[in-house]
Each structure stands twice: as C-alpha cells, then as structure tokens.
Amino acid sequence: LLGVLLVLLLVYLASSFSLGSPKDRKEPPGPTPLPLIGNLLQLDLKRPYNTLLKLSKKYGSVFTVYMGPEKVVVLAGYKTVKEALVNRAEEFGDRQAMLIIREFNQGHGVIWSNGDSWKDMRRFALTNLRDFGMGKRASEDKIIEECEHLIEVFKKHKGEPFDTTQPMNYAVSNIICSIVYGSRFEYDDPQFTSLVDRTNRTIQLVGSPSIQLYNLFPWIGKWIANRNEVETLITANKKQNLQLFSRLKETLNPLMCRGFVDAFLVRKQNLEESKNTNSHFNDDNLMQTVLNLFAAGTDTTATTLRWGLLFMVKNPKIQDRVREELSEVVGSRQVQVEDRKKLPFTDAVIHETQRLANIVPMAIPHKTTQDVTFQGHFIKKGTTVFPLLTSVLYDESEWEEPHSFHPAHFLDADGKFIKRDAFMPFSAGRRVCLGESLARMELFIFFSTLLQRFRFTAPPGVSVEDLDLTPRVGFTLNPSTHKLCAVPCV
Ligand code: HEM
C-alpha cells in the first residue's frame, strides 16, 4: 500500500509540473521532470549550456527545463534569441536573481535589479562610463597607460612561462578603478590586489555547482561551506569600498568629479538638498552598482584577453598575420582606437575570439515581465528565461565553421571587416551589456599592443596540441589554468 501511495504521489507531483495551464496555453515542450529535482539528472551542472544546446536540437528553439523545482524557459538559436531580446525586449527584459544574489544584493545596483531603480542606475552608470570611461579621448589614454604597466609585468618574465591570469585581472580592473574612484592602483598595493582577488573568487564561487545547488535547495545550505565563503568575500569587499568612499567624501569637489563615486555622491547630495525623498540615489545603490561594475567589468574582459592569447598560441600562423598587419599599418608606435578600421584582420581575430570563447554562455537569467505568447508557446509572467548565447555564437545556420577558430567569419572576399548579426557575446536588447563599448575599446588596445610587443608561445616541452581549450567551470567561461611564454619582439 505504501508503494502504491508513493507512486500516486510521484505521478501527482510530476503532473503538477506540466499541467496547470489551460489547453490553449501551450507551454514550451521539454524533457519530463522528476519531482523536486526536475531535470537536474539530465543537466551537466558543471557545464549546463552544453546540455541545453543538445536539448534544443530535440525540443526546438523554445523549450522548458526544470532546474530542481524552478521552471526555466530556454531560448536557442540566433533568430529566436533576437526575436525575444530585441523585438520583444519589454516582455523578456526583467532580471531573475538566484538566491545567493538575492541574499547579498537585495535588488540594488544594475545587474540584478528591476523597475525604476534599475532604470535610474543603468542610465546613471552608462552616462558615467561615457564621461569617465570610453567617451573621452582621456579614457583611451587610460587604457594605453595601463597597457604599459601590463607590458612591464610581462617583460619581467623574460620569455619564461607564466600564468597571465593575475596581471591581466589587475590591468583590466584598474580601468574600472579609474572610472569608479578616479585613480588607478599599483599592482603590489594589497588594498587593490585583495579587492580584485576577492571579486574574482566570488564570481568563480557563484558559478560553482555547489552554489547552484544551494540556490535550488537552500535547506542544504548550511552544509555547503562555499555559501559562507561568498558571504565573507562580499562583506570584506563592501567594507573596503566603504573606506574608499569615505576617503573620496572627505575630498569631494562637486565642480570636479574624479569618477563615478564622486558623481553619485554629488547627485545624492543635490537630491537630498531638494528634499527628494523618493530617490534611488542611496547608499545601497551606490555600493551595489560599484560592486557590479567590478564584477561585470573585470573578469569578462580579462578572460577574453586570455582566450585571445591562447588562441594565438594554438594558431601561430594567425598570430603571425596579426603581427604583420600591425607592423604594416601601425609600425612601432602605440596602437590607437583610430587604427581599428585599418586593421581588419586583427579586428576579425578579436571578434572570433569573443565568438568562440563564448564567455557568458547563458547570458544572465532574464524574467518575463508579463504573460507572453511567443512562437506559439505560452510563458507565464515571472518565468525565468535563459537566452542561450552559446546557441547564437555557435548557430550552425549562421556560422560557416561554428566550432573552430576561423577569423574569416568576419572578413569578406577582399579581406575587409564585416559585421555579423549573430555576433552577440554582449547579448542584446534592453539588458545588453552596459560595458560593451568600454570592453571593445579595452580588448582592441590591450590585444593589439600585446601582440605588437610580444610573440606568444607554449612553454618549452609543451606542444600546441597539449594546450587545453576546455573551459573551467564558473559563471563565466575561463581558460583552464595554463602558462604561456611572452617573448619580447625586437
Ligand atoms: C551584462 C557580456 C564587459 C557591465 C552583460 C551580459 C553579458 C555581458 C552577456 C548579460 C546581458 C543579458 O542579460 O542579456 C560582457 C562581455 C564583456 C563585458 C562579453 C567583455 C568582454 C563588461 C564591462 C562592464 C560590464 C567592461 C562594465 C564596465 C555589465 C553590466 C551588465 C552586463 C552592468 C548588466 C546590465 C543590465 O542588467 O542592465 N555583460 N560584458 N560588462 N555587463 Fe557586461
């Protein structure tokens, strides 16, 4: 009898996943979920984007999976992702934050917020990235200056093998520091290195399978040590930022803002003086937006650059061609953003790096803002949506060689650079990456200057074939740990 009751209970629970909507509201198809754990057994939690890509071949471009008890609608392929994010931007434009984020973020900042607060913070961050970041000639100079510091670090290794992760993170993070605080830090400043190292460790942890399990089954949280580590890291970074903010406050001059924090403090002050009590310019939003800019703006760009160098080592002929183009067009002077249009091959190599590296494979979870009927399927308001960027960047109907490093994807028959619509590493629509322009400027200057100054090779005794291109597990796809040699070009 107990067995029969158990079977009945399982049937009831399983059916409650898929039923519950009127017949005319046809929900997206998908694999049958098991009670409680949903489709977790079918998903590779380390690399869920791979399984989702496979499932899209079976269930089509709009399908449902259950991540434990949570229902997720997956959008696959260029046409579908574009239709949802661009043509139906409003309906698919909210953010779904997982539990670990909700615990520490509480809906503030840009990445994980919604509604008017998100709009205000996004607009303000964009304006300030333009003013203190990519918009002015000064920002190009900032990147060029930082690149010189990075080159000095690379040179110190004298062509011997080393891991590029830390210097790359420090250089890219310093660009965010200049924009946010108005100044850069030395690479041996412990205040700076701990901020960057903690940020990167947090990103790694948030994408780990154990934290994903915690998000789905919080009651097992207390057995998961990583949850506490995330808390410690975030608390330490907040504390350090509070110290930095209070130093900036002491020397604040409203007529001469040094960076994002100054501009925010001035805006906050002005609103307080005009007795505006409804403002989103509060301390929580300042803290979370700053943490967001570091989290989203460092690991992504630094990782892409490291993939770029790795692809160059794997493809030495392509590396040589980039250097030849740089030598013909730029010679030995400093590369500038202006040069980009005269460097089609280099530009194509950077685009192809971003396409194949696919560093944010499932974008960041979206959420429907209302009930939606999409490609004949009903999707309820508040449903989590994964725009599967992997399926766009590797879309077999868009790319001639989706799984190889093939810069010709971005070149016409005459070798001129061509834009490709399915190039979507920054996603698209309402939630498109806020730092896209800055990131593109950084990628171009850092990558081309490094290739101009160094030849990158595998360590002695390691063959090019031995270099592993399998990404590490994490929120963003990093190359597995490896060392490279940066041999100075004479
Ligand atoms: C969001 C990619 C660099 C700030 C995103 C998203 C992707 C992405 C895929 C999610 C979009 C969506 O949910 O549909 C990248 C890549 C980068 C990069 C590939 C570098 C190669 C940056 C930089 C910054 C930044 C340098 C800041 C300075 C943000 C922010 C969001 C975001 C704030 C959230 C936007 C919102 O929710 O409104 N990025 N990003 N990113 N990115 Fe980036």
UniProtKB/TrEMBL annotation:
GO terms for molecular function: heme binding; iron ion binding; oxidoreductase activity, acting on paired donors, with incorporation or reduction of molecular oxygen, reduced flavin or flavoprotein as one donor, and incorporation of one atom of oxygen. It is found in: Endoplasmic reticulum membrane; Microsome membrane. The keyword Endoplasmic reticulum applies. InterPro entries: Cyt_P450 (IPR001128), Cyt_P450_CS (IPR017972), Cyt_P450_E_grp-I (IPR002401), Cyt_P450_E_grp-I_CYP2D-like (IPR008069), Cyt_P450_sf (IPR036396), Cytochrome_P450_fam2 (IPR050182). PROSITE patterns: CYTOCHROME_P450 (PS00086). One of its GO terms (biological process) is organic acid metabolic process. The keyword Transmembrane helix applies. Its cofactor is heme. Keywords: Endoplasmic reticulum, Heme, Iron, Membrane, Metal-binding, Microsome, Monooxygenase, Oxidoreductase, Transmembrane, Transmembrane helix. Heme binds at C433. The chain crosses the membrane at residues 1-19. GO terms for cellular component: endoplasmic reticulum membrane. Its main location: endoplasmic reticulum. Belongs to the cytochrome P450 family. PANTHER family: CYTOCHROME P450 508A4-RELATED (PTHR24300), CYTOCHROME P450, FAMILY 2, SUBFAMILY AC, POLYPEPTIDE 1 (PTHR24300:SF319). This is Cytochrome P450 2K1-like. It comes from Gasterosteus aculeatus aculeatus (three-spined stickleback).
